[in-house]
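All the exercises in this workshop are built on plain-text protein records. There is nothing in a record beyond a sequence line and a structure line. A learned vocabulary of local backbone shapes supplies the integers on the structure line. The question running through the whole workshop is how a given chain folds. Here is such a record, shown just as it appears in the course material:

***
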Amino acid sequence: MAEIIRMPRLSDTMEEGNIVAWLKKVGDKVSPGDILAEVETDKATMELESFNEGYLLYISVKEGSVPVNDILAVIGGKDEDYKSLLASAPKNESVDTAPKEKNQTESPEKDTEDEDLTPESIADPAPESELVKTNLPKPGSEVTQSNEIRIKSSPLAKSIAADAGIDISSLTGTGDGGRIVRRDVESFVINKKSQSAKTNLPSAPQYGEFPVSQMRKTIARRLVESKFSAPHFYLTMKVKMDKTIESRKLINDQSGLKISINDFVIKACAAALRLHPAINSSWLGDKIRVNKDINIGVAVAVEDGLLVPVLFGADRMGLSEMNSTIAALADKARQKKLQPPEMQGNTFTVSNLGMFGIDEFTAIINPPDAAIMAVGTISDELSMVDGKVTSAGVMKVTLSCDHRVVDGATGAKFLQTFKQLLENPVAMLV
């Protein structure tokens, strides 16, 4: 019997997906586990996997944007009449539908894997779709090039690489789970041509009109919603960083680690949030949730915009663990390899532009958080102490607060604790 395949929600912020390419064409036989298409979301390029047996009878959109839960395709028996099914089916279905319960019954192992991927601290996660292929390896997802080398790549990427005479094992994948996809092959070809030109001229700037990526669309929508629905107010405070700088140097010199100032900032935020739970809250419309877990989102700039991977249980992390975790998440963010569970469940967010020499700025709250901290650079400032002029390294931080949840005095007390911790960092290391 023919079944309709709809666009799944592949991340908590996804409203539509962009069909990059179909890897199956109408008339092709489809088996469970086959990859139907590559879908660009607001955060990554992911693979649409089939859980149906039959033939691909219909494709609604060959390339382009499709809203979540809109009809993508129909899979059924060979030459089966699917037009009456399409005519009677709503174009867009609610996320919570009866067929989802049926699919959960039919594929319990898949559901168990999805639950294991999602941290318990994530509140109200977006429904997982059976069509999402995560970064967990699955049988048949790797193409064996020899008895010793196994390369993960999409069929389309393999075809393009073969036509161009490229050894696909020499490429680095940016798709889901490190999978080599079409853009990796095309980028390799472009770079190879550019290198063969052997020119030292700087690349010409690109002018004109360009299509808006799914990531940029989502950033625009969420920031507008946040800015104009949450009544923001801002609190700025100066923090003397001399003792933190000294502690950082001591730790790095004696341990060989490379702890950053940002690690100390996030550590101080986590400790202060434990003492001021009202800041670690979420606005849910008809109620306010005071979150037990402290999950700090760390804003990471990427080519198309901004991603916010999450440090789960940040208050329980040591500086070295925090440093390595942030580095790994930031690297995955820049390669668009972050998975939805790694970007959901934040209860507070830190955005640091200090490394770019920015003195201070205000950040827009990352829903459903009640606050976000904007961190500036450390600058030398002169001050009078006991009648003497002294110099100190000072960092400005600005806390953006949702006035529906946080009052001015509450935010100020949080900043006072944050300041005390950074000006006496030993207090948060014990």
In short: Confidence is low (pLDDT under 50) at residues 95-149, 194-203. The two ends are 63 Å apart (CA to CA).
